[in-house]
């Protein structure tokens, strides 16, 4: 089995990457396995810029190929918010519960048909020679009026996935790992993963 480093401290993402990389015969290591890497400031203006900041910083520190994920929720009725601020929407303590409460409150008066939203995931790959690239994936849905389900993380309980008639947090992890923005982004990385530059 090969090893891949994902520059994330998010346990929910870590679990999803472990599940998605298993069939590709990769063991996943994240920043939760290195206790000495500090938080990398997300100062970019786009998901892609923030993903690159994280991947490049950790590739420099480790000298290895590193993948990172910058993702979030885009709500049409909120002009794209929370967007790149998804993790810190209700404050720097990054509380999923507070973030969902804030979105639900802001959408209180918004009728069902205007509650369209999507998850966006940018993945960056940074190579030790300084080269880097990004890919992305999206997943369309609607914002519910209350939480449903207990799987997943982040905004999953308030994100309705039409094809399944369920909240993302009601889908089994193996299903989310097939249809999510993260899964689609990873699919767009497949040719890179198979290239000799990635796995020497
Ligand atoms: O599949 C998802 N299901 C639900 N919510 C999600 C998902 N994917 C991203 N999200 C939300 C969570 C967080 O509020 C933000 C990510 O912020 P983002 O900066 O990329 O991640 P993070 O700070 O938690 O961890 P890290 O930067 O160490 O990877 O979007
Ligand atoms: Mg972050």
Automatic annotation (TrEMBL):
Keywords: Hydrolase, Magnesium, Metal-binding, Nucleotide metabolism, Nucleotide-binding. The keyword Plastid does not apply. Mg(2+) binds at residues 41, 70. Its EC number is 3.6.1.66. Substrate binds at residues 8-13, 71, 153-156, 176, 181-182. The lineage of its organism: Bacteria, Bacillati, Bacillota, Bacilli, Bacillales. Belongs to the HAM1 NTPase family. Its cofactor is Mg(2+). Binds 1 Mg(2+) ion per subunit. It is an enzyme of class 3 (hydrolase). It comes from Robertmurraya kyonggiensis. InterPro entries: dITP/XTP_pyrophosphatase, ITPase-like_fam, RdgB/HAM1. One of its GO terms (molecular function) is metal ion binding. The keyword Nuclease does not apply. It catalyses: dITP + H2O = dIMP + diphosphate + H(+); ITP + H2O = IMP + diphosphate + H(+); XTP + H2O = XMP + diphosphate + H(+). Transmembrane segments: none annotated. CDD domains: HAM1. The active site is at residue 70. Pyrophosphatase that catalyzes the hydrolysis of nucleoside triphosphates to their monophosphate derivatives, with a high preference for the non-canonical purine nucleotides XTP (xanthosine triphosphate), dITP (deoxyinosine triphosphate) and ITP. Seems to function as a house-cleaning enzyme that removes non-canonical purine nucleotides from the nucleotide pool, thus preventing their incorporation into DNA/RNA and avoiding chromosomal lesions. One of its GO terms (cellular component) is cytosol. Homodimer. This is dITP/XTP pyrophosphatase. One of its GO terms (biological process) is nucleotide metabolic process.
